[in-house]
Amino acid sequence: MIKKISYLALALFISSTTWAQFGLSSEMATENPSEWKASVKKTSDSVYTVSVVATIDATWHLPSQKELGEDENGPIPTEFNFEYDPNTLEKLGSTQEPQGITKFDEIFETNLTYFQDKAVFEQDFKIKAENATLDLEILFMICNDEMCLPQDQQRFNFEVQNSVLQLAETKAIEIESKDKVNTEALKLNLIGKSDYRLNTDEPDDSNLTIFLLGFVGGLIALLTPCVFPMIPLTVSFFTKGAKTKKLGLINAILYGAFIFLIYILLSIPFHLLDSVNPEILNNISTNPYLNVTFFVIFMIFAFSFFGYYEITLPNSWSSRLDQKATSVGGVVGIFFMALTLALVSFSCTGPILGSLLGGSLSSDGGATMLTFGMGGFGLALALPFALFALFPNWLNSLPKSGGWLNTVKVVLGFLELGLAFKFLSNADLVQHWGILKREVFIGIWILIGIGLVLYLFGKLRFPHDGPKQMLSKGRLFFGVITLAFVIYLIPGLTNSPSANLKLLSGFPPPLFYSVYEKDTEGPLGLKAYKDFDEGLKVAQQQNKPILLDFTGWACVNCRKMEEQVWSVPEVYKTIKNDYILISLYVDDKAKLSDNDQFNFERSNGTVKKIRTIGDKWATFQTLNFKNNSQPYYVLLSPKLEVLNETIAYEPSSKAYLSWLMQGLENFENKKR
């Protein structure tokens, strides 16, 4: 059972958990490179053929309707959906398509059928009664050799008049209430936006920072029982087993290079996933069910580090690779040796890698940042094998394997517990369950910290711990550091100003998500309107400018801005006294009322279902500001005049205050 769970955990971490919050733009900048036209021709007295012609731009192609097999991967097949009353129309057979091109696709590793330049689809219908209507929805993807654009849709309407089936005036299919298409509901008529720079770019989170985080994670992985003992053994194998010293050095360096390459390769599928659906990585981060799943998986990882069971990949995998490495030899054999190390060390490296990347989900950058993080992790694992091969005398300075390696694993297990509750907190916040209010969350972290202190001081034991020995300086040092951290957390259990815990901004739930009663539900006790129209009305009544705050319940950088920048007295006072604060939570999963739900038609003709508060405000942000990152700040007058350039994450309180003051000055100038 544990092994099956471990396989599931691996799949989730390597395909979704890692960096799911690296937000990507929710709208593709590329226009769909296809044009669709429909027509009707008479075949017999009561039979008509509906023809749809797709014209596809050069270098692009359209997948066929052919369904993929269970073991096949590929673009989503083109789909024709006809809606009609069977009492008035009869569909004859299936939708016919041209022969197309069938070719082996190296990316999906299967034969795919697709159409280039032009494709004609035909469907026969028999008229059974007058005044019949026929609605056609076409779902399709357009691909090239590098990527597939997000699934798009095209609609046509037909009607029977005087016993003739004909193309009706093209219009959106309207049913009742929430199924109506609305293109104007979220559109703002902004004034003067050309006077200022509207930041439509995603915040430039440093790829170097993510690379360094991955590198630190790799260094931690080196200090585990699965990896550390392998360093001297492997280096000795290359330096002493080679025919010449020079060849041994080359082989050892090549071995390290392959380790680095393998972790880079693990991120490559994300680039394809990124192209097929640019929203998927951004949506995973706030999906409550996935976050709960990650909570469970991280708990499983934690207890494996405690030594209650082992999470390993099937032994047959590593055995086959080891045999392959031995039989092949040479450069290819060294590659298989590196791959074998990656597999056999998974019980230690997998949880660390998943924790590191999963804990960085608030950053933007998607698959590119994933590659940088995996590269940093792989480089940290690879360096020792190359360096010790170049300088073999350094091996003598390595500490001997022993009980301290298990201590490292157990400490990591406690860290896994803390991170697990962060995922549960994300789900709790976006769903408003009220399970992990800020003080409850901090209380759990305090208990985890106390457990770690007791372990480091030798008062708590786990299955793989050796005999009790005198407390080492290392354990004493880290025990004192952990105890200091626990003491730092204690004020967070109160409602005092010291409960801010600025060093942890973004990890615990926001200050207003509290077990204590608060005067407002805004950050830092500020009055924040969570509906744009309501806030705009107040701004017009009081003739005050608006600070429009696009934020998220699970947004780490949003909490950092609130607790580290907004909390600065000058900034706080300016927001409170001089602005109307409107905070729109783009990840709020609370359902809109039935009357407020609708379908939003994008400029490319696709339709997005607006069902939750988050759906509404995320679309509102993208539509009006061509940006979907958080935090994102806009200054507006009550007349919807843009008062300053838009900004995103700004850690400098001085710069942020200057931005606010410039907005106030511009507002006063516009009133004259």
Describe the structure in your own words.
This protein is an alpha+beta fold and 672 residues long. The protein has four domains: 34-172, Thiol:disulfide interchange protein DsbD, N-terminal domain (Immunoglobulin-like, Sandwich); 207-398, no CATH class; 420-436 and 438-504; 523-671, 3-Layer(aba) Sandwich (Glutaredoxin), CATH 3.40.30. 43% of the residues lie in helices and 16% in strands. Helix 1 (2-17) packs across helix 7 (288-305), helix 10 runs parallel beside helix 12 (403-431) and helix 17 packs parallel to helix 19. Residues 1-30, 170-178, 274-281 and 359-364 have low confidence and may be disordered. It is found in: Membrane. This is Cytochrome c-type biogenesis thiol:disulfide interchange protein DsbD-like protein. Its main location: membrane. Residues 82-158 form the Thiol:disulfide interchange protein DsbD N-terminal domain.
* Structural class estimated from helices and strands: alpha+beta
Strands of the widest sheet, in order across it, are 1-2-8-5
Q: What composes the largest sheet? A: 4 strands, antiparallel
Low-confidence segments: 1-30, 170-178, 274-281, 359-364
Mean pLDDT: 77
Counting structural domains, the number is: 4
* Shape, per Cα inertia axes: globular
Distance between the termini: 73 Å
Query: What is the C-alpha radius of gyration, as a whole number of Å?
Result: 30 Å
Compute the number of strand runs: 17
Helical content class: 40-55%
Fraction of residues in β-strands: 15-25%
Tally of separate helices = 19
